[in-house]
Known about the structure:
The protein is α+β, with helices and mostly antiparallel strands. The protein is 22% helix and 36% strand. The chain starts with a strand and ends with a strand.
Amino acid sequence: MTLTIDIQLHRPAFQLAVTHTFPLNGITAIMGPSGCGKTTLLRTIAGLEKPDSGSILMGETAWYDDAKQSIPPQHRRLGYVFQETSLFPHLSVTANLRYAQKRAQRKNDTISLDHVIDWCGIAALLTRKPDQLSGGQRQRVAIARAILSAPDLLLMDEPLASLDRSAKRELLHYIRTIYHHFSIPIIVVSHSQEEVARLADDTVLMDHGRIITSGQTTELFSRLDNALADEDSLAILEASVAGQEPDYPATHLQADGQQITVSHLMAERGTTTRLLVPASEVSIMRESVADCSIQNRLLTRIDGIKPAGENHILLRLTLGKQALLALITRQSFDRMALKQGESVYACFKAAGLQVLNP
């Protein structure tokens, strides 16, 4: 299933012109600066904004065609989770969920009320009203309600923006597994690189009402030719569990044939996971030094060099089919006389990594 969009929308001081095909085989994130059109695009997909021209095709079904028809929002088989939850304030959690279940437009044997309640961990909240819930609890209920509507596609607009860090981490887990657990694809709007790196299989970058680039998230985050390549850059490594450290609470991973040590993971050998490596945590060495507190030293090749701000250089470092980014000062870059194509060691502490739960 794909979602194919070719639309133009004109507003005072703003124009949206998007041509793109969303694969809908996992989670796709839409990123970009404030005011670039992310939310407007999402609302257009949902039918809450009407384009001036173009088409929106969900598979073979025309949701919008300026020459033919416009299917109203309630008939598009969509779930929508907003930044601020839209639960019915006068209804209990149970009543909110049952309302969504009754309005489900298709049968899905994997989605039952009891199963969704259990999966979202909201059994203790069922008798409460929305104003008796924390922000994280309200978003979990909102996600459960969206799932119970059995949508063909789930849209999320900054669903974590108003939550504290602890609640964000909890919600990230639920969002990340929705597609695999319920076979519901997701398009999510976010301004956070960390959130997108944790969530998204594919990423779309927008600016000034247009999509400027798109691709697999792991590949897009390690490129130097887009707006993500700055002093806050991070790269994503796919790795598999190779074994546990017998004497310390640590786990050994393998990434393209090289070992990475992280804090202990409860995972079996061969389990795949995703590592988030901030460019600011990566140091460069020409030789691997054994007597060093930095355990992770990966042999890489300098594949790209880009200025970052007034005093930093961003390096793209390849290892096999994957890549890291390293942010170093101009002084270090000049002192080491680093050159493109040169082999160097990318070094980073286990404490500097963020490991997604396998």
